[in-house]
Specification:
The chain is mainly beta. The chain has a 7-stranded antiparallel sheet with strand order 5-8-9-1-2-3-7, with helices on one face. Strands 4-6 form a two-stranded antiparallel sheet.
Length: 172
């Protein structure tokens, strides 16, 4: 509950400080494999993409692939979220000359205590559409945190291993 209050407070501050409206925002409550809430991710529409802010706890220390998946579902076992957002069918990987796909993000790094905070910017998606795939489309989207870091080249998910946390992306 304390984590939820902190996340809500940070989100309210972010909205007030940025002048963004709720229509320009989305969020995801991150749950682990035991169904426990371990953090949140917020999404803010910008003129050329989406600002992604991550605040999670309880992760194994070290690097973790984090990706945007094409279906807004986390159950069962996080596989209902499908694959990465990738309407063009390009190869995975931010370092791949033929890629990356729209769901690719840089790695997330957890400290020794399992906490991770990060801010990413992606020009590969939007919240509601236009020229880019929408996170809030008819079947929704999910954010997945993987067990290992993404090498940004290997197919299909950069060697980032199993899905250890998931969040359904929802409008605010």
């Amino acid at each position: 509950m304390k984590l939820l209050h902190r996340a809500i407070g940070a989100l309210v501050f972010l909205i007030i400080a940025s002048g963004a409206s709720a229509a320009d925002m989305a969020s995801a409550r991150i749950i682990n494999a035991d169904g426990l809430e371990v953090g949140s991710v917020t999404f803010q529409q910008a003129p050329t993409g989406v600002l992604v802010s991550v605040d999670v706890t309880g992760l194994p220390p070290g690097g973790h692939g984090i990706h945007l998946h094409g279906v807004g579902s986390c159950s069962p076992d996080f596989k209902a979220s499908g694959g990465h957002i990738n309407p063009e069918g390009v190869p995975h990987g931010l370092l791949n000359p033929g890629g990356g796909d729209n769901g690719d993000l840089p790695n997330l790094y957890a400290a020794a205590d399992g906490s991770a905070r990060a801010e990413f910017f992606t020009t590969r998606v939007s919240l509601k559409g236009g020229d880019l795939p929408a996170l809030l489309d008819t079947d929704g989207s999910a954010v997945i945190i993987h067990a290992s870091p993404d090498d940004h080249m290997s197919q299909p998910i950069g060697g980032s291993g199993g899905r250890i946390a998931c969040g359904l992306i929802e409008g605010m």
